[in-house]
């Protein structure tokens, strides 16, 4: 592959994230502030999403959900908004807040009807709230010979 002297536009975000983590990984609060500022300046929810995932990794699920909600407000594409809701559902599930996760997943379903994400949410609901088993068929009476 050819080496390029400058990153293409699509790669700038990833380069910024790598640079940020290299520079401020030892100070998660500073890293969060820097990425929050970047998200506000660029009007791009990806920075919020990265911090949300990082906070989740650090074992701070409540903070993670705040960043996922912030990203959801900034994103304009429905697929990005759905991804944030999936992050929130999974974080709630991980915290043992199953009922809250179910409510959000059920509310999300009508909004994503007919999209590829619909089946994902249905699968999550089946895991969180499995349907009851089908009724058992009555046993056949033994026939007399």
Explain briefly what this protein structure is.
68% of the residues lie in helices and 0% in strands.
Description:
The chain has 145 residues and is mostly helical. The chain is elongated, with a radius of gyration of 22 Å.
User: pLDDT below 50 for ≥5 consecutive residues: which ranges?
Assistant: none
The average pLDDT score comes to: 91
Which structural class best describes the helix and strand composition?
A: mainly alpha
The H-and-E topology, N to C, reads as: HHHHHHH
β-strand amount:
under 5%
The coarse silhouette is elongated
Radius of gyration: 22 Å
How many DSSP H or I helices? Answer: 7
Largest sheet: none
Strands, total number: 0
Q: Please bin the fraction of helical residues.
A: 55-70%
Measured distance between first and last alpha carbons? 80 Å
């Amino acid at each position: 592959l050819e080496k390029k002297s400058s990153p293409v536009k699509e790669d700038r975000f990833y380069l910024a994230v790598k640079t940020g983590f290299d520079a401020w990984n030892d100070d998660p609060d500073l890293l969060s502030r820097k990425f929050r500022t970047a998200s506000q300046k660029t009007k791009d929810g990806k920075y919020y999403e990265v911090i949300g995932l990082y906070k989740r990794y650090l074992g701070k699920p409540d903070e993670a959900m705040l960043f996922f909600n912030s990203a959801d407000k900034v994103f304009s594409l429905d697929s990005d908004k759905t991804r944030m809701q999936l992050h929130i559902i999974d974080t709630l599930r991980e915290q043992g807040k199953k009922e809250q996760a179910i409510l959000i997943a059920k509310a999300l379903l009508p909004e994503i009807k007919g999209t590829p994400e619909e089946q994902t949410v249905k699968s999550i609901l089946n895991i969180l709230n499995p349907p009851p088993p089908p009724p058992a068929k009555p046993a056949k009476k033994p026939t007399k010979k």
